[in-house]
Amino acid sequence: MADQQLDYASAKFVTSAPDISKLPPDTGIEIAFAGRSNAGKSSALNTLTRQKSLARTSKTPGRTQLINVFELDSGQRLIDLPGYGFAKVPLAVKEKWQRSLSEYLQQRDSLKGIVVLMDIRHPFRETDQELIYWAVDCELPVLVLLTKADKLKQGARKSTVLQARQAAIAFNGDVQVEAFSSLKRFGVEQVEEKLNQWYSKEYDDE
Question: Which helix (H) or strand (E) holds 12?
């Protein structure tokens, strides 16, 4: 099947769910965006969809404590997962949303790819690595986006991306690494290309 050319600007908010029991039916294809609370996940989703406030952005990391669902086309969804890391929220709240993140990743059959976002200045922290190893174990493809790439000069950016690609080999799975900047809008084409591939795959559940 040829890769679909999806219109990401058509993305519409569907629901915010506290856990997987409140998500839409587990059919079709979902691609999840995950990352530390300050990785720029909401900004990346807004840049991809050409919408300023589809995903909420906040100066306070960790505001996204629910699983947010956006629909592109019938059965094709983008999922904004709760940020992980050191957001200044009560421990009980943090544990609850870490639990819902874990449940989604382990139990959602329609999940067919994960975009892991990490600040280009602090790539592959322990929690990022855990998530990628989990995805590889589940034979899920991963697109690593090194966000805020405009913060580095071109030479340093290229060097960091090359080092990250070298590091990604150790995961022993389908892990692609790209630089991304919501501010300068670079890397968007690579994200669209990869997502089009994932949404175009035919999955035989027979």
Answer: strand 12-17
CA distance 130 to 117: 13
What are the C-alpha distances in Å from 82 to residues 79, 87, 180? 10, 11, 20
DSSP 120: T
| 3 state SS of 119 | strand
Domain that holds residue 120: 12-200
User: Is residue 25 situated within a structural domain?
Assistant: yes
Cβ 36 vs Cβ 118: under 8 Å? yes
Domains: count for the chain: 1
Q: What is the pLDDT of residues 106-135, one digit of tens each?
A: 899 999 999 999 999 999 999 899 899 989
Count CB-CB contacts under 10 A for residue 96: 16
Q: What is the residue-averaged pLDDT of the chain?
A: 87
In a domain, 205, yes or no: no
